Amino acid sequence: MKKFSYRLQRVLEVREKTEEDRKRDLTDRRAELQQVVDLREQLDKKRTSSFLETESDVMFLLHGSYLARLLQEIEAVLSRIKECEDRVREAEVLFLEARHEAEVLRKLREKKLTQYNKNLELHESQVLDEIATLRYGRE
Model's pTM, two decimal places? Predict the structure, then answer.
């Protein structure tokens, strides 16, 4: 009997490659999101630790403008966080779709392999039965 071959094997390999690429993309986007969140935490620490004892009015004004700039940076980072979260959600959807497509082909391959093995066992048992019948006929 012929060796098992899955005619959609190339398609399965392409789908698995796509799944790996989407997974890598998702990981990269999550890492990018984490970097932006870390940046926000750093800016928050700077803001909370920047309360200095102001000795003069000039230092007070400089400190106020510094805090205003920090708040602007924090707002910019918050918008970047939202963008990164959207990209992560988009990457998750794409990854889940790719994983589903590959999983469907994997399950189909397993079903075909199971059917092939059943047919192989049936063929072997028929051959053994025929051999037994021939031996019995000779005796």
Answer: 0.75
pLDDT in tens, 11-65: 999 999 999 999 999 999 999 999 999 999 998 888 777 665 556 656 666 777 8
Sequence letter at residue 56: S
Separation in Å, CA 9 to CA 15, 55, 63: 10, 75, 65
Q: Where are the domains of the chain?
A: 14-138
Q: Which two tokens mark 133?
A: 């019948």
Cα 138 to chain centroid, rounded? 64
14-138: CATH class: mainly alpha
Q: For residue 7, which of 109, 114, 117, 110 has the smallest C-alpha distance?
A: 109
Q: Which residue has the tokens 């805090």?
A: 67
- Residues 6+ positions from 8 with CB-CB distance below 8 Å: 105, 108, 109
